[in-house]
Amino acid sequence: MILFIAGCSHTGKTALAQKLMEKYHFPYFSLDILKMGLIRSKKITATPLEDEKLTTEMWPIVVQMVKTAIENEQNMIIEGCYIPFHWKNSFEKDDLKHIRYYCIIMTQHYIHTHFQDIKKYANIIEKRIDDSYCTKQMLLKENALNLALCQKYHLDYILIDKTYHVDITL
Predict the structure, then answer these.
(1) Phi and psi of 82, rounded to 5°?
(2) Smallest Cα–Cα separation from 167: which of 36, 57, 20?
(3) Does the pTM exceed 0.85?
(4) DSSP H helical segments within 46-135, as ranges?
(5) Which of 1, 40, 100, 124 has its CA at 20 to 30 Å from residue 21's CA atom?
(6) 2-160: which CATH number, 3.40.50.300, 3.30.365.10, 3.90.1520.10, 3.30.450.20?
(7) Looking at residue 123, what is its pLDDT?
(8) How many whole angstroms separate alpha carbon 75 and alpha carbon 56?
């Protein structure tokens, strides 16, 4: 099984992937690590903040990794914000039977009432060098956009509203 965990920055994708890795013993792959490897090796020209360009350049690599894992009957958790909402178009119908997708989305209510907690837990798994881009306005805008796109593409999402509790049963 391949599990995609998507969502905007600071929604807990990496923490959930870590939790699922420990629970199910599936390896997980962070698209942020791939991003930085490609940027630092100068294999791509994007900068760390060019999300659309990064998605365009990284997605073909991720698709081939997933297809290889499916062919080899391997399980994998892939997390990151570089999974396009039209991701299903990259796979054959038989491949889709082996893939699950969840997008973590925080409601406006949650962001307004828990913004300080969101910032506080930003480094729970990965160490962020510069977190200044994460503002309440950015989170409100990005989470609302992700919800609209999940609904448009009929994708599964996990809505965080009153308390932060995220788990997936595989």
Answers:
(1) -105, 25
(2) 20
(3) yes
(4) 51-71, 93-96, 108-120
(5) 40
(6) 3.40.50.300
(7) 62
(8) 24
Q: What are phi and psi of 8, to 5 degrees?
A: -80, 175
Q: What is the pLDDT of residues 34-85, one digit of tens each?
A: 999 999 999 988 888 888 899 999 999 999 999 999 999 999 999 999 999 9
Query: What is the distance between the terminal CA atoms of the chain, rounded to a whole angstrom?
Result: 9
Query: Which residue's structure tokens are 């570089």?
Result: 82
Specify the residue for token string 């969840």: 102
Q: Where are the domains of the chain?
A: 2-160
Strands of the 2-7 sheet, one edge to the other: 28-30, 76-79, 2-7, 99-106, 157-160
What is the pLDDT, as a whole number, of residue 45? 86
